[in-house]
Amino acid sequence: MTEPERRPRPRAFRLDGEQIVPPKSARPASARPQEAERAQPSMVEAQIDVFALEAETPRDFVEEEKAIEAAQKRGVLRSMLVSWGGLFVSALAGLLSLAGGMWLTNLVEDLFAHSALLGTVGLALAGAALVAALAMLAKEIVAIARQNRVARLHIALAEARRRDDIKAAREHVKELCKLYEDRPETGRARALVLEFSQQIIDGRDLVDLAERHIAHPLDAQARREIADASKRVSIVTTVSPRALLDVLFVAAQAIRLMRRIAEIYGGRPGMLGFFKLARSVGAHLAITGGLAIGDSILQQVVGHGIAAKLSAKLGEGVLNGLLTARVGLSAMAVCRPMPFSAEKPPGVADVAPFLFGDRSGG
């Protein structure tokens, strides 16, 4: 029996996944650098197209945001000292303070001349009044600083969303969460937004997420306040016998509504802060022409036949209710710490549909 022929052994090879890698000796030397180049993973950084972002931004959003920022700069963010009016008020306040100090000094001296006990009581009361005045002044300064913080945060978040800047969006969203850290009802939303801010997300999407979860519940409260104020004004104007009472009540409701909306969004204006807020609201009404773009109030009124069907007094009530709603919407736009981007800004028909005969919303 002959010895079986020896078969050649198979050449050794190595398995890498699903690819067969031949031995190093079998690979041509010229191909090795190219293969090594191909084996290295390449990383391509995404470039932000600024022109595409501008094209994606709705024109109405840009125009509304310009109006809001211009109104904030004319009122809330306006320095009271860098103007002739501010200088006049400051100088007049200084003169009145000096006059009050002189009068108080003479009063205390007269009390001491009459009786040591009366002088001591007068001095103690003067000290208490001075401490209270300083506390009120400090409170006003803190309130104005908080208003400025909210207004600057609004502008910063709008800019971060426009540029799709994730770094700026994270920074300002954290500041937004810090602004409402003393509001327990926003705790869950703040935790969710902060969790998402640490993940891979676009700056624009992060701002929209913060708006939906943090600003949306506050918007609902503000809309309820506007609806209630508009309803009160329309009813009282309809039943009021005197025009002077109408004017006083409408003014009082407008003041209360502006203060309440500022408190909802964290502004908490004092006396001086309210003047700045009222200036911003007036500027926003003037810039937008007194009526919000797209509301078409006159068309809705004519369409419902209010002018023809209702009495003159009831028509005045509806008109005053519309104006009160517009004041509330302007205050809402100015006091909001972030722009309307993920959601459409509400109109008069959205917050006060009962003024147009739609009772489903009222």
Automatic annotation (TrEMBL):
Cellular component annotations (GO), alphabetically ordered: plasma membrane
Membrane topology label: Multi-pass membrane protein
Positions in coiled-coil regions: none
Region listing for Disordered, in residue ranges: 1-40
Entry keyword set: Cell inner membrane, Cell membrane, Membrane, Transmembrane, Transmembrane helix
Compositionally skewed regions (Basic and acidic residues) per UniProt: 1-17
InterPro entries recorded: DUF697, UPF0283
NCBIfam families associated with the record: hyp_HI0043 (TIGR01620)
Name of protein: TIGR01620 family protein
